[in-house]
Design brief:
The termini are far apart. It contains six helices and four strands, in the order ααββααββαα. The chain is mainly alpha-helical. The protein is elongated, with a radius of gyration of 27 Å. β1 (99-102) and β2 form a beta hairpin.
């Protein structure tokens, strides 16, 4: 390539400016992208959504997929274990149901399952989970967050953090509870030490799914918009005085989203 009146220094300067502009464009795009913007995973995903059914108070593992032959052999005998209740007599209680192997893989399953054996080879049953506490709230924290203290991010928060969400106008992690909250409450779907954007949003089973989702009947949309704008102005001024607090920005966005 021969371009007249173009010196090498000018050429390198122009090239550097172009690369700098491209880099700046990329940085600005990342800066303006929301925290829930979808992220490219390391491997091509096969699933688009993650649905976790955590059924507190459901049937025990030995009554469903994890038979305990030793427990059945000790049925109704007294336990000398020092764990659990400190006073009173303790006895071993085996499962009243029989277990069988189903499917080509020989998955062990209670005989109480009538139709589930038909899809046994499509199931993945992991029987390596153990708990560090006998208390129900701590056991729930351990199951949902990996920590029995309930201070770490929940599984849904990690999925939301790692993959993002296809919709920036809706929560990327929602929690559907029954009438009563699980033991330990909202710490079971907490964002932990992750930014507040990744905390689970609870959808109520009755009435409005989210509290204050609809404006009062005596307020018009114009009044609601004016109130949100005024609130945003006050919040932004407060956030400017306290930089580095991601929770403030998260709460501001939650008001606008609602």
């Amino acid at each position: 390539m021969n371009i007249p009146n173009l010196h090498r220094r000018d050429f390198l300067y122009g090239l550097g400016s172009s690369l700098g502009a491209l880099a700046m464009t990329d940085l600005l795009a990342k800066e303006t992208a929301g925290p829930l913007t979808p992220r490219k995973p390391m491997h091509a995903p096969k699933a688009k959504n993650v649905i976790m059914l955590f059924m507190e108070g459901g049937p025990s593992q030995m009554d469903t997929f994890d038979p305990k032959p030793k427990l059945d052999a000790l049925h109704k005998t007294e336990s000398k274990s020092t764990r659990g209740l400190e006073t009173g007599f303790k006895f071993y209680v085996g499962s009243p149901f029989k277990s069988r192997k189903v499917g080509q893989a020989g998955l062990e399953m209670s005989d109480q399952w009538q139709h589930l054996p038909e899809v046994a080879d499509e199931l993945c049953n992991y029987r390596g989970c153990t708990a560090e506490s006998l208390n129900h709230p701590e056991a729930l924290f351990h199951m949902n967050t990996g920590s029995r203290l309930g201070a770490d991010p929940a599984l849904g928060a990690w999925v939301n953090y790692g993959l993002g969400s296809m919709n920036q106008n809706l929560p990327g992690y929602v929690v559907m509870t029954e009438l009563a909250l699980p033991q330990g409450g909202s710490r079971n779907w907490s964002n932990g030490f992750l930014p507040g954007h990744f905390q689970g949003t609870r959808l109520r089973p009755t009435g409005s799914p989210i509290l204050d989702l609809h404006a009062p009947t005596h307020k018009t949309r114009e009044h609601q918009r004016a109130a949100l704008d005024e609130l945003a102005f006050l919040n932004q001024r407060h956030a400017a005085k306290h930089p580095g607090h991601a929770d403030l920005a998260t709460r501001m966005e939650s008001y606008e989203l609602a």
